[in-house]
Amino acid sequence: NAGVTQTPKFRILKIGQSMTLQCTQDMNHNYMYWYRQDPGMGLKLIYYSVGAGITDKGEVPNGYNVSRSTTEDFPLRLELAAPSQTSVYFCASSYTANGEQFFGPGTRLTVL
Amino acid sequence: TQLLEQSPQFLSIQEGENLTVYCNSSSVFSSLQWYRQEPGEGPVLLVTVVTGGEVKKLKRLTFQFGDARKDSSLHITAAQPGDTGLYLCAGAGTSGTYKYIFGTGTRLKVLA
């Protein structure tokens, strides 16, 4: 089992560019989450999904979009990148609603 | 809005010392998790506490959930350099949502 995989590991964007952060899990988990972590801080929830076709906003959804067409994949889309979106992005999944979250290795994004 | 405050933010101690990290909120949580995160990696679950007043032990780590399920503590006995990392608490709300709220984090450094 690979667990939760994220691509890319690093990315530099220019202001106004767009990109998609990929997240895939092979544990057949229904629940998936996207977080961002600013330097030295905790994690803030961007979006989450409770199953294929169902997504909802977290604490900081502005500037992001998600989709969940399959159980395995939960991509995060950044439109019109801004310097405030410079952060490390973590994808996570869990088997149950309040169960253990398994995190991917993160994507470090810099917007210049 | 539910918030989780952790204290202290930073802690640097000598090997062999004891320490306690606190996670406090004015909100009630249905369960609370503690994670440890090492540089360049995603958080990894240490423990989940569910019942008010619950105490769980993991080797030299002792976790307690407050009686009112609004706060939690992590106590490390005889800290070792391998305990170095960012400790995060995460609470699951009681409102029936599937969102986790992460604390602000405690960065621990244990010096040999």
Class of secondary structure makeup of chain A: mainly beta
Order of helices and strands of chain B: EEEEEEEEEEE
* Average pLDDT number of chain A: 94
Give the helices and strands of chain A as they follow along the chain.
EEEEEEEEEEE
Determine the number of helices of chain B (DSSP H or I, runs of at least 4 residues). 0
First-to-last CA distance of chain A:
36 Å
For the termini of chain B, the CA-CA separation is: 40 Å
Strand content of chain B: over 45%
- Low-pLDDT stretches of chain B are none
Query: Radius of gyration of chain B over alpha carbons?
Result: 13 Å
Question: Low-confidence spans of chain A: pLDDT under 50, at least 5 residues?
Answer: none
Quaternary organisation of the protein chains: heterodimer
Overview in brief:
Chain A is an all-beta fold. Chain A has strands at 4-7, 10-13, 19-25, 31-37, 43-51, 54-57, 64-66, 76-78, 87-94, 102-103, 107-111. In chain A, the strands form 2 sheets. In chain A, strands 2, 4, 5, 6, 9, 10 and 11 form a 7-stranded mixed sheet that branches.
